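Re: beginner question about structure tokens

> Can someone show what the tokenized structure looks like for a real chain? I only ever see the sequence side.

Sure, here's an example I had lying around. Input first:
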Amino acid sequence: MTSKNDLSSSKDEFKALLAKRLFQIRNLRGYSLEKVAEEGDVGLTPQQMHNHEIAASNILPFHLDQYAKFYQVPVGYF
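And the corresponding structure tokens:
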């Protein structure tokens, strides 16, 4: 049986992986947080996006979809 701590750990690992992938693609493309906020139609401030990139806050599915559209990658990339 899976314990509550195991589920929490898996969730944290997934959140950290998403954060890492967001940070990587933004930097590979040479974009600033401000550029993504202004041109990305993600609906977030640079500070909120930074929080996603350091896994300090959860990413809503809608925002993940918006990131994918902006970076022109499938959602599965993240």
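Each token stands for a local structural state, so reading them left to right follows the chain. Helices lie at 4-29, 33-39, 46-53, 61-71.
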